[in-house]
Structure formats: C-alpha cells, structure tokens
Design a protein that fits this description.
Oligomer: single chain
CATH architecture: 3-Layer(aba) Sandwich
Order of helices and strands: HEHEHEEHEHEHEH
Distance between the termini: 55 Å
CATH class: Alpha Beta
Largest sheet: 7 strands, parallel
Radius of gyration: 21 Å
Number of domains: 1
Strand order of the largest sheet: 4-3-2-1-5-6-7
Structural class: alpha/beta
Helix content: 40-55%
C-alpha cells in the first residue's frame, strides 16, 4: 500500500510591514465612521422606500420618467425616497422625492468614473465603501423598488433576497418594475434555480412585479395592512 507524506506547510518569513498594517487599521475607523454617520442621519427618515436602477438612463428615457412618477407618488404618500445618489434612475428617484412632500435621500459612492451626485437631495451622504452604503440602502426601508438596471442593480437585488431568504432581514416588499424587462430573469429563477433545487418555491414569493406607480403603492400598503399595527413597528431589519 502506497502512502504519501503529508505536505510541508511553509510559512512566510517576511517581516511585517508596519506602514501597511497601520494603513489597514485606519480603514477600520473610516468604515466605522461611515456606519455611525449613516445611523445618525437616517434613523429618523422612516418610513422610507429605497429605489434601485441603472445610472445610465438619460432624463428623457421612459424608465427615468416612470421612476420620477413613482418616487413623487411615494413621497406624497409619506415615504422618504432613498437612492444611490447618482445619475440615471437614482437621479429620477431623488428628483421625484424632492418634488414631493417627504425627504429625498442620496447615498453617494465615491468612484473614479460614472458616479456623480445628483442635485435633488435633502439628505446627502458620501461613502467610500460599497458594503457600508448597501447596508444603509437596505436597513431603514419599508420596501424596495427595483427598476431596470445592470450588474450593480442585480447585486443589490440578490443581496436583499439573500438577506430575506436566510432570515438575516425581515421580509419587505421587493417590487420589480417593468415586467417585460425582468421576465427573462424570473423565468430563469423558476425554470432553472427552482427545478434544480437551488432555491425553494417560497423564495419566489419574495418578489412582486408591477408596471404602474399606483400598483406599487397598493402593494406596499396592502403588505403592511395585513400585518396590523403601525408600519414603523415592522421596520427594523438587523
């Protein structure tokens, strides 16, 4: 019977780079500062709705116009509007919220390209770290409205669904807007993920699809009316 000798584990003998270690340690305080500022400035905006979507749609695009309408109706209904603070769908969301009766909140990310803060923000925060920003986009929302978007939007959508699926976050309405855009993805969820048992049937119930602003309002209010009590009683995620 052949036996193999166990592999030799080699440890690095390189000296610790104190400068690099100090730089990494300071990042901890930068991250903490972003969370603290976010908690302090956003804890009183409830109820709010977080709106996600592509930064690439121009102001005359139908999705931009639709997003502005959705945000205005939600704002007039008493919901603060929270977006990623940039152009495209984010700008449309903030613009509609800014024109309405409630606060318009922009959670801006500092990037070398693409992101620029839009000018329709009553409350504006700047983040260096995507993960800190994503926590703030999720934590205080009564619902999530997802407009058409790319990789970033898909990342935010799947993270929200994962938090709910794993019971790390309480369930909220997750509303995909524009059925024609999302239909292929939803079919893949059903025909591939479900049939290959990588998700459960109840995971598909986390998602609702709507096309019109009034549908979105009805979905949100109906969701909380069936749970009783005040909406604020259901708003703490972590």
């Amino acid at each position: 019977m052949n036996t193999k000798n166990p592999p030799t584990i080699r440890t690095s003998q390189r000296p610790i780079n104190e400068v690099s270690l100090n730089q990494e340690s300071w990042k901890i305080f930068q991250i903490m500062a972003e969370f603290v500022e976010g908690f302090e400035r956003l804890s009183n905006i409830a109820p709010s709705v977080s709106i996600f979507g592509s930064a690439r749609f121009t102001h005359d695009h139908p999705y931009y116009i639709l997003t502005e309408q959705i945000a205005r109706e939600l704002s007039d209904a008493g919901f603060s509007i929270v977006s990623g603070g940039g152009p495209g769908i984010m700008e449309a969301a903030n613009k509609g919220g800014y024109a309405g009766n409630s606060s318009s909140v922009g959670l801006n990310i500092i990037l070398p390209h693409e992101q620029r803060a839009n000018s329709y923000q009553d409350i504006s925060l700047n983040f260096r770290y995507f993960f800190a920003r994503k926590v703030m986009l999720v934590k205080y929302a009564a619902a999530y409205v997802i407009l058409p978007g790319g990789y970033g939007t898909l990342d935010e959508l799947t993270e929200i669904l994962t938090l709910m699926q794993t019971n790390k976050a309480q369930q909220r309405p997750v509303i995909l807007v524009q059925k024609s855009f999302w239909e292929g993805l939803l079919n893949w969820f059903h025909d591939t993920l479900l049939t290959q048992h990588t998700i459960n049937p109840e995971d598909l119930t986390l998602i609702t699809v709507a096309d019109q602003p009034k549908e979105i309002l009805d979905i949100i209010f109906s969701y909380y009316e069936t749970r009783g009590g005040r909406m604020e009683d259901h708003l703490f995620l972590f």
